[in-house]
Write a structure and sequence with these properties.
about 220 residues, mainly alpha, 14 helices, ARM-type_fold
Length: about 220
């Protein structure tokens, strides 16, 4: 008997644990942009825990497998790709961002975009070439690509490249796009936990250019 592929094993696990009613609810929540198998996050991750564990043991990224999963019409398969890349991030290198970029550019919505920032951000901690790349992305015509640039340093704390953060945010001032202005607010709010004075000064300096949403989100933890 022919051995089933890793993607077929993944799909089988997701189907086995699926909930059609939950799938309908999830599809509605996501504005019916994607189909769902119907798994909550804990159940979804549990269903492919062993598969990711085996992939970790291989110590390399199986892009063919990930491309097959990304092509699946159900959203949980894209979530798997994001979880896989986060779990195996130490095996990623700068050149792999080109492949991740294909995921950034397809099946776009906030859920996968906000997960793909994590492996890209981690590569940036190891490779300075990500700095210039994120500067370029921060001026891209595609606002989802710009959102990745804005958010890729989230949770950096004292490892924040402040000069880069400042440049990326300034490149996106005056936007009318909700997902950009929300991302700017999140970036400011996150860094305010580490350097509130810098965030206060940034908001003060750019108050007339920042969207109300960005100021509201960015000021959340400021006294």
């Amino acid at each position: 008997m022919k051995e089933i592929s890793k993607y077929q094993r993944l799909r089988k696990k997701l189907i086995e644990n699926s909930d059609p009613e939950l799938a309908r609810q999830m599809e509605s929540y996501m504005r019916n942009k994607f189909k769902f198998y119907g798994l909550k996050t804990p159940e979804r991750r549990k269903s492919y825990h062993d598969l990711i564990k085996l992939e970790k043991a291989n110590k390399k990224i199986d892009w063919k497998f990930l491309d097959q999963a990304w092509a699946d019409e159900h959203r949980e398969a894209q979530y798997f790709v994001c979880d896989y890349l986060i779990a195996l991030e130490k095996y990623l290198k700068f050149e792999d961002i080109d492949h991740i970029f294909n995921y950034v550019k397809s099946k776009q919505w906030w859920d996968t975009i906000d997960s793909l920032i994590k492996p890209i951000g981690n590569i940036g901690l190891r490779d300075d070439r990500v700095t210039d790349l994120m500067l370029a992305w921060s001026k891209d015509d595609d606002f989802w690509v710009r959102r990745v640039a804005i958010e890729h340093q989230l949770l950096r704390k004292d490892k924040m490249n402040v000069k880069l953060l400042n440049a990326i945010l300034e490149n996106n001032l005056g936007s009318s796009e909700f997902f950009i202005n929300k991302a700017i607010g999140w970036a400011l709010r996150d860094y305010s936990k580490t350097n509130p004075d810098w965030v206060k000064n940034f908001i003060s300096k750019h108050h007339n250019e920042l969207a109300t949403l960005s100021i509201k989100e960015g000021s959340k933890y400021l006294s």
